[in-house]
Write a structure and sequence with these properties.
Structural class: alpha+beta
Distance between the termini: 46 Å
Low-confidence stretches: none
Helix content: 40-55%
Number of strands: 7
Mean pLDDT: 91
Radius of gyration: 17 Å
Largest sheet: 5 strands, antiparallel
Strand order of the largest sheet: 2-1-5-4-3
Shape: globular
Strand content: 15-25%
């Protein structure tokens, strides 16, 4: 299965995360994201989670206030893509502890890291939640060590202090 793109869009049509696995111009990407967002947001909750758009099958799923949208080939398996989306949400949920839209706004780099750990070049690379979370935890540990070596302290602690004010 070849994934062409994945993006997260809010109910207000704001793109929260976008990852492309095919070559397109910036103008074409923006046009596609706008069209697909409008298409997905206009659909009723009881409608099917698959819709065709140009030469792509759009698969989406709504979690809380975010729509997780993926574009795949017309011959690809929609149910498998729904499972990949669900697995990504499960990993995000485990990492952030009940993930919400604000987590993805303020720690977008972690959401990209997790996505990159799972999907590479439009193909599923790692489906194990434990493996993905272990790699991300190692990454966090390395980041913390490097920050302490530079004298920056614990960035998470600083972020928590900012959140309290």
């Amino acid at each position: 299965m070849t994934i062409k793109y994945i993006f997260l869009v809010s109910r207000q049509a704001k793109i929260r995360l976008a990852k492309w696995y095919t070559m397109s111009s910036q103008k074409e990407k923006a046009k596609t994201m706008k069209e697909v967002s409008q298409l997905v947001l206009a659909r009723k909750p009881k409608q099917c989670n698959f819709v065709e758009h140009r030469d792509t099958k759009v698969v989406y799923r709504k979690y809380a206030s975010l729509y997780f949208v993926a574009g795949i080939g017309l011959d690809d398996n929609e149910l498998l893509m729904l499972e990949i989306i669900h697995r990504y949400v499960e990993v995000l949920d485990r990492y952030f502890g009940n993930v919400c839209e604000l987590d993805l706004i303020f720690q977008f780099q972690k959401a990209y890291f997790i996505l990159d750990e799972m999907i590479m070049a439009g193909e599923l690379q790692e489906s194990s939640k434990k493996t993905v979370l272990r790699v991300i935890a190692q990454q966090d540990e390395t980041e913390a060590v490097e920050n302490s070596e530079r004298g920056w302290g614990d960035i998470k602690t600083l972020a928590n202090l900012v959140d309290t004010y």
